[in-house]
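Anyone up for a design puzzle?
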């Protein structure tokens, strides 16, 4: 992925695919779930010709109800 694409990946309606079924909403939905619903962080790193790495960081929350059982 080119750096210009990496910078746009989480923007709504951004897509690098042409054709039917490419709304460009997938990664923006993931971004909103991770950052707003789960209070996490998501980042994208790409090496051109090597691949893309998405990193998602979430807080660990211990379940107090399991301790009661």
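Challenge accepted. My sequence:
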């Amino acid at each position: 992925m080119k750096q210009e694409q990496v910078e746009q990946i989480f923007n709504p309606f951004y897509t690098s695919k042409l054709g039917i079924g490419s709304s460009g909403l997938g990664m923006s939905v993931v971004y909103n779930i991770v950052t707003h619903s789960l209070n996490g962080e998501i980042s994208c790193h790409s090496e051109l010709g090597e691949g893309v790495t998405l990193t998602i960081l979430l807080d660990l929350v211990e379940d107090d109800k399991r301790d009661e059982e």
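A detail worth pointing out: The first helix runs from residue 3 to 8.
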